[in-house]
Automatic annotation (TrEMBL):
Key word Zinc present: no
GO CC terms of this entry: cytoplasm
Superkingdom of origin: Bacteria
Any one Gene Ontology molecular-function term assigned to this protein's record: cystathionine gamma-synthase activity
Pfam family, one: Cys_Met_Meta_PP
Protein name: Cystathionine gamma-synthase
Family: Belongs to the trans-sulfuration enzymes family.
Protein's GO biological process: cysteine biosynthetic process via cystathionine; transsulfuration
CDD domains named in the record: CGS_like
InterPro entries (alphabetical): Cys/Met-Metab_PyrdxlP-dep_enz (IPR000277), Cys_met_metab_PP (IPR054542), PyrdxlP-dep_Trfase (IPR015424), PyrdxlP-dep_Trfase_major (IPR015421), PyrdxlP-dep_Trfase_small (IPR015422)
Phylogenetic lineage: Bacteria, Bacillati, Actinomycetota, Actinomycetes, Pseudonocardiales
Amino acid sequence: MVHDPAHLGFETRAIHTGQKPDPRTGAVIVPIYQTSTYAQDGVGGTREGDYEYSRTANPTRTALEEALAALEGARHALAFGSGMAASDAVLRTTLRPGDHLVLGNDVYGGTFRLIDKVLTHWGVDYSVAHLSDLDEVRTAIRPETKLVWCESPTNPLLGIADITALAELAHAGGARLVVDNTFATPYLQTPLELGADIVVHSTTKYLGGHSDVVGGAVVTDSDELREQLFFLRNASGAVPGAFDAWLTLRGLKTLAVRMERHCDNAELIAEALAVHPKVSRVYYPGLAEHPGHATAAKQMRRFGGMVSFNHADGEQAALEVAAGTRLFVLAESLGGVESLIEHPGRMTHASVAGSLLQVPAELVRLSVGIENARDLLADLNGALG
Ligand SMILES: Cc1ncc(COP(=O)(O)O)c(C=O)c1O
């Protein structure tokens, strides 16, 4: 895997790493290698580049993986067909029957569902802990704990965990730290540099950035883990197609400028919501009163584009706001250029109802896009009444 010189800035790596002009045609943009198979020089002999079958490897996917690794400051990245496929690969590579993992109390509902409804059938046990409470994490770690699974910021409550401290705790207990970096993106936070062992992404979100492709990635510095993940991905086949890899790579190129604008708009909206009479609580790590603000400021460049809030008048009022905006589209997912609004309790996080991860019924989640901030504020104020 190409490891870019450290002197290249983030924006430059996003546009150039793994993306040299095509040597045969000069095409400036990496082509969509829409092929399942590759001619071989002889029986058992592959040509330059070692491509033989696109489940195993594909040049468009390789370009995406080199760029992703460079952005996370990592040795390796592997692209998957979705964020859940990436998480699944990490869980099945690192855990065996009898193993245990510690899970943040506020992880993405789909991650919880995979662990609670699928992994437990294969003899894996888990505990849920508030990852911002290091004593709680220390208590949750057992001799058979192999993973600590962290999101920071979390989905949907924007909780912040101290990644460096968590990595130390996990390592002291003989476990690895996984960070789902979907909300922050490598532009705002690079968990491997903070001590994490593995980063996972739903590239569906900010990395793709345009709500037009589903994908995932795993990033690590470990050669051994990379080999194990590569083996599992080839064995089970959870790969993205060439066009999906290309769309994600195209999105990556503008990640830095998009994230700056997402952050600008989200900061303005969080501040406006914080003084709105219909809002009883705002969850945004950029606000000084957020309990994780100091930690977020230490480990993040800025605070991201996701903002959640509680409606002061309860669940029905929250549902009405979610259905009442005009520019904010009522939809699941996040991280695209367009603003989205949703009700986690009934939508993205319905699968955690009744569990320790249940979210407040009056919660509304915003994925703040890169439109004109004044228009977004007017839209929200209109829906809040
Ligand atoms: C934080 C986080 N991790 C993982 C996922 C799963 O990703 P995907 O939908 O690409 O499978 C999501 C999806 O919403 C997410 O928000």
